[in-house]
Write a structure and sequence with these properties.
Layout (H helix, E strand, L loop, with lengths): L2 H7 L15 E4 L2 E7 L9 E7 L1 H4 L9 H27 L17 E2 L13 E3 L5 E7 L3 E2 L2 E2 L1 H20 L6 H24 L1 E6 L6 E3 L2 E4 L13 E6 L3 E9 L2 E6 L5 H10 L13 E3 L3 E4 L7 E4 L17 E3 L4 H14 L4 E5 L5 H4 L3 H6 L10 H12 L2 E5 L12 E6 L2 E4 L1 H10 L38 E4 L3 E4 L2 E4 L9 H18 L6 H15 L1 H4 L12 H9 L9
Parallel strand pairs: 14-20, 14-21, 16-19, 19-20
Antiparallel strand pairs: 1-2, 2-3, 3-6, 4-6, 5-6, 7-8, 9-13, 9-15, 10-11, 12-13, 17-18, 21-22, 23-24, 24-25
Helix pairs in contact: 1-4, 3-4, 3-5
């Protein structure tokens, strides 16, 4: 029986009878529809649909399918096109412009929705494009009902007529703006190539001349109108080759220790934020689409009150009163300095090779100790080795670069390889001037960075399986997320609000799925944190995002290993093998 007839036959029946439609494909030529999950009632979370689009329906050109990056860009483009069509139709109906405007039943009846994308071009489960040109789109829909009775005719109209019409009208053959699609594919391919060139050229980040770095607001990531474009001085510039844009001139932040200095409100943090976000690709028109940062760069900050489990803090903290060891440090309520030290060690464990730190969000006593405090509190009475004393050792012995925003810690001039001074939102090469100032105004005796001794080799941290318990009450698995602020995992709420490079709520939802993978046997008590991250990366790379995400959800987006590690490290139930 065709879907339309089946839905009409359900008219007036109990809402639960919608479940008879699930988990089988329904032909809606030229599309195919699968209802992957039916909501429990009209007021519950909406039902989940998958629409399969054949290659001849999309008619995508070969250049849109030729590589995984091209397909990611194409999938993102199709996602945005379908999402715009759904929003436009919904807005029109709310204004009474459509023939089906007005109430269609109880709760969310009749509402079709799709994950909304931000400025980043991420791999998502919302739209997946295969190498042969086929695609799968995942949406949510409120199946129509009056009370708890099925509105079968309205459902047939919604799923058999309206939904295919909206999808085909957005991405069917002849409907896709191929010029805009090509621009997006080429923009993404350029960013990938530029990012790959960073290691070869010895760079941490590259920000193109003319880029727009400021954002509209803290809650609106679109480019700020009338923003001062980035103007790169010759002393800080280099050129990189992009496959489509050709030679691109931009600000080169070289490996080593880079300071971003300048007066307040002159753009220091804006520059660092752009560097942090440029681990991701951006859509055309974002302003940062020719800005790239190496993929293993991690933002570090103080985070009062977070838990720390079994982290070797000896590089930064030792000689605690009463002889307490910091080799496997545990606390449920870390101070700012302890949390920042732990964040660095954890980032290195996950493979970070560049640290991004803003003085405004750092613990002062962790970053620096001036001459007076060193004299008042002798080294043998101070457990903290400031970052100032370790930053060059990180560079020389571990190959880890640091990009630091500093406004008041002039001691860092002694350890900087490059100094960028922001003045009126424009960068200037202040390296030579900074060295001259450091020579003219040497640090007081005892205040200069000290040799901190060797960097301890930490023992691998091996999470015990019981660390990952997703059960809550009668539910064996309960995982939810709240925007990019928190992830509910079983009885716990993991606070990720200060994990700066989580940029999309869909990434938090995927982290929840990855924690479930760990709970289902991947975390065996023998594998280290780094090995578990490697295993998840390998599985995503081989089988794709659909394999690691919970089945049927279209609101997941790929997350870096560093943000997954951040969530694991903030799990208060985390326990480690001895």
């Amino acid at each position: 029986m065709p879907l339309a007839e089946r839905l009409r036959a359900l008219d007036g029946r109990s809402y639960g009878d919608y479940r008879r439609l699930g988990r089988r494909p329904w032909p809606l030529p030229p599309l195919e529809l699968t209802i992957e999950h039916v909501q429990g009632d009209p007021f519950a979370a909406p039902s989940r649909l998958r629409v399969d689009l054949p290659a001849d329906v999309l008619a995508l050109p070969a250049w849109a399918l030729g590589s995984p990056d091209a397909r990611r860009a194409t999938a993102d483009f199709l996602h945005r096109a379908i999402s715009r069509a759904l929003r436009s139709a919904g807005d029109g109906e709310r204004r009474g412009e459509g023939p089906r405007s007005g109430r269609r039943g109880s709760g969310g009846s009749g509402r079709i929705d799709m994950l909304r994308a931000g400025q980043e071009v991420l791999e998502r489960t919302s739209v997946v494009v295969d190498a042969d040109g086929r695609a799968r789109a995942r949406l949510t829909v409120g199946l129509p009902a009056a009370g708890r009775r099925i509105l079968g005719r309205a459902a047939a109209d919604l799923l058999v007529d309206r939904l295919p019409r909206l999808v085909l009208g957005a991405v069917g053959a002849g409907r896709v703006d191929l010029e805009a699609l090509r621009r997006q594919v080429e923009t993404v391919e350029d960013q990938v190539a530029l990012r790959q060139a960073l290691s070869t050229e010895g760079l941490v980040a590259f920000l193109a001349d003319g880029a727009t770095l400021p954002r509209t607001s803290g809650v609106d990531d679109r480019p700020l109108r009338d923003a001062v474009p980035l103007r790169v001085p010759d002393g800080l510039a280099c050129e990189l080759e992009a496959p489509h844009a050709g030679r691109v001139r931009g600000l080169a932040l070289r490996a080593g220790v880079t300071l971003i200095a300048g007066g307040g409100y002159h753009g220091k943090s804006t520059l660092l934020d752009a560097i942090a976000r440029s681990v991701y690709d951006h859509v055309p028109g974002d302003g940062r689409e020719t800005c790239v940062t190496r993929a293993d760069a991690v933002c570090i900050r103080a985070e009062d009150g977070r838990s720390v489990r079994g982290v070797d803090l000896r590089p930064f903290i030792g000689n605690l009163p009463l002889g307490r060891s910091t080799e496997r440090f545990d606390t449920d309520d870390a101070s700012g300095s302890t949390s920042q030290a732990a964040a660095i060690v954890e980032a290195l464990e996950a493979g970070a090779r560049a640290l991004l730190i803003d003085e405004d969000t750092a613990a002062t006593n962790f970053m620096i100790r001036d001459a007076r405090m060193r004299k008042l509190v002798p080294a043998d009475r101070e457990p903290i080795t400031p970052f100032l004393d370790r930053v060059r050792q990180l560079r020389d012995e571990r190959g880890v670069s640091s990009v630091l925003v500093v406004g008041g810690a002039g001691d860092y001039l002694d350890v900087a390889d490059t100094v960028v001074r922001m003045d009126g939102y424009e960068p200037h090469d202040a390296t030579d001037e900074a060295r001259r100032i450091a020579a003219e105004l040497p640090l007081a005796p005892g205040a200069a960075p000290r040799s901190p001794g060797r960097w301890p080799t930490p023992a691998p941290r091996r999470p015990l399986p019981g660390s990952f318990d997703p059960s809550r009450g009668r539910k064996s698995e309960r995982v939810r997320s709240r925007s990019t602020r928190a992830i509910e995992f079983g009885m716990e709420e993991i606070d990720v609000s200060l994990v700066a490079q989580l940029v999309d709520p869909a990434q938090c939802r995927l982290i929840g799925d990855l924690l479930l993978l760990l709970s289902r046997g991947m975390a065996d008590g023998d594998s280290s944190v780094a090995e578990l991250l490697d295993r998840i990366d390998e599985r995503q790379g081989e089988a794709g995002l659909e394999d690691v995400a919970e089945r049927g959800f279209g609101d997941r987006a790929r997350v870096r290993r560093h943000e997954l590690a951040a969530a694991v490290n903030r799990l208060r139930s985390l326990r480690l093998a001895d």
